Amino acid sequence: MTNSLARLLIDFACRPWVPLAAALLLGGCSTLTYYGHLAQGHLQLLQAREPIAELLTDPGTDAGLKQRLAVALQARRFASAALHLPDNRSYRLYADIQRPFVVWNVFATAEFSLDPELYCFPVAGCVAYRGFYSQGRARGMAALLEQRGLDTYLGGVEAYSTLGWFDDPILNTMLRWNDQRLVAVIFHELAHQQLYVADDTAFNESFATFVERRGLGQWRAARGLAPADPQGERQREQFTALVLASRARLKRLYARDLSAERMRAGKQAEFARLRAEYQALREGVWGGVGRYDGWMATPLNNAKLLPFGLYDRWVPAFAALFEQAEGDWPRFYQRVAALGKLSADEREQALQALSGGPRTCPADQRSNSQNCHSGRGATQ
Bridge partners of 102? Predict the structure, then answer.
């Protein structure tokens, strides 16, 4: 499951028409040095791209790499031919960037808050994280934020997209996934090129997630493959629900009038409860499968909980809209575009009606990755 950092930050930073004064006027965290870092990193990535079609005919290309790239190219063609997604050079190129992640995200919150530190950019809007092409730079920012007493979380991102402003490549970081996830991410990222609404992360990610899932189903059916095993999806949803419940309890704790000492004790008790509940889920329902052991083994804090509950909020609404369009992709996209033109309040009301019930969300959470949820969600 991909993160929106590259879409939301690099998209803005790399546009040639962004005035230098605008970057400087953003002030604070958005310094000229940071934009220079983004531009340099993006340029290096662009320079590493090679056409997949040429790599497939090159006798010097590793056989294993050829197999993975052939699948990616087939999925790319299917995306435009069957799903009517943008037909351009994105994901018809390959880049080996010689590292495990393309960018690293830094999330931050106050010690007793689940509200993220926001970073706002023209066009892209506000996001709840800041990203770097260098892990060292990301760690440096996290250290500075920790000196201010903030909770921080640093996470690597494997996929890359610029909303179609550049020809985005398949990256070596993406080839660690199995074929199903690789295909799904191609559909997801192209959906963002199809439609993107500034300052509405839940809308954008839910739309792309629906396209990804429905498209993957069509892809498998077209190849005579059985439907995907739902076990992994169920486990992801169960784990996400566990984290979201913990986040809700922490929110209630932070709203109380308590001393800092008692607040810290309650916070640590909640994280201990989350670990215990995960262990019970792992050993019980999952039969010992420790899919999220690595995540649970590292320190827990407020910032680490921020990415949860982001991708699924309006998926039922888009499923209903797809049914209303009788499974016709172009007609579906037209209806989604019409929703995107509504005001934030009107759009939320329409999505609630489509999904069959209220999914209330405070206005100050609509544009960041701490979106409200309906009991479902996704990790990143």
Answer: none
Specify if 264 maps to a domain: no
Output Rg (C-alpha) for the chain, integer angstroms.
Answer: 21
* C-alpha distances out from residue 94 to 43, 45, 345, 360, Å: 15, 10, 40, 41
Residue 323 in domain: no
**Residue 254 included in any domain:** no
Q: What DSSP letter does each residue of 4-27 carry, written as one string?
A: SHIIIIIHHHT-TT--HHHHHHH-
Indicate the number of domains in the chain: 1
DSSP 117-159: PPEEETTTEEES-EEES-HHHHHHHHHHHHHTT-EEEEEEE--
With the CA atoms of 280, 282, 287 and 293 taken in that order, what torsion angle do they form, in degrees rounded to the nearest 10?
-150
Q: Do the beta carbons of residue 308 and residue 379 sit within 8 Å?
A: yes
Q: How far is 377 from 330, CA to CA, in rounded Å?
A: 27
Phi then psi dihedrals of residue 132, to 5 deg: -140, 145
CA-to-CA distance for 191 and 184, rounded, in angstroms? 11
Considering the entire predicted model, what is its pTM?
0.80
Task: Print the domain residue range for 37.
Answer: 5-222
Task: Tell me the C-alpha distance between 56 and 58, whole Å.
Answer: 6
Q: Tens of pLDDT along the chain (380 residues)?
A: 344 433 333 333 333 323 322 333 333 444 678 888 988 999 999 999 999 999 999 999 999 999 999 999 999 999 999 999 999 999 999 999 999 999 999 999 999 999 999 887 665 667 788 999 999 999 999 999 999 999 999 999 998 788 888 999 999 999 999 999 999 999 999 999 999 998 888 899 899 999 999 999 999 999 999 888 788 889 988 999 999 999 999 999 999 999 999 999 999 999 999 999 999 999 999 999 999 999 999 999 999 998 886 677 899 999 999 999 999 999 999 999 999 999 999 999 999 999 886 544 433 344 343 333 333 333 33
Alpha helices in 223-259 (DSSP H): 231-254
Domain annotation covers residue 269: no
Length of the chain: 380
Coil, strand or helix: which one is 345? helix
| Structure token digits, residue 8 | 């939301």
